[in-house]
Amino acid sequence: MTLLERDREAPSAWKGSLPVTSRYTYGLAGERFFRALKDEGKILASYCPKCDHTYVPAVNFCERCLSELTEWQDAGLVGVLHTYTLLFVDFEGQPLDEPELIGFISFGDGGIIHKLDANPDELEIGMPMKAVLKPQKERSGSILDIRCFQPVNK
Question: Which of 33, 38, 63, 121 is the residue whose CA sits 20 to 30 A from 57?
Answer without folding.
Answer: 121
